[in-house]
Fold:
Amino acid sequence: MTGPTHITVRVPLRIRRRPGRKTVVTPVVDGLPAEATTRADPALLKALARAFRYQRMLDDGRYASISEMAAAEKLDRGYLGRLLQLTLLAPDIVEAIVERRQAEGVTLPELMEPFPVAWSEQRLAVQSDCGVAPRLTRVRPSPPGTAACAPAPPWPPLR
Structure:
């Protein structure tokens, strides 16, 4: 019998930073199923769930106003209002977030900013055709005859 044998195994991998944690991304090997890369943002999923829960409370008449709900839930009224705007997202965008298929730039901080109410404008805003991260706060439909990826001016201030 011979002495102990040592085996060295080298695995190529990358470590990606995701919201609040690190993720190991292994290379795709021929013949093996590729793991689905997830862009799960737990904070975004939790915020969506809370937003729809708070909206249901308002709809059921449990609270008469956002101010009353904010006081009862011990939340800042402004935060609760911004959170409730998540219920205005297009259903397919919400579905993509829940199924972890959303575009890379669709994050909770982006969604907490004002965004278009029209679903068609929201869909245009989250498209990433230009190779840049989508921004819900800055994207507007391009007028005919202009470049689709030209930077859009900021939304006008609310009055």
In short: The two ends are 85 Å apart (CA to CA). Residues 39-110 form one domain.
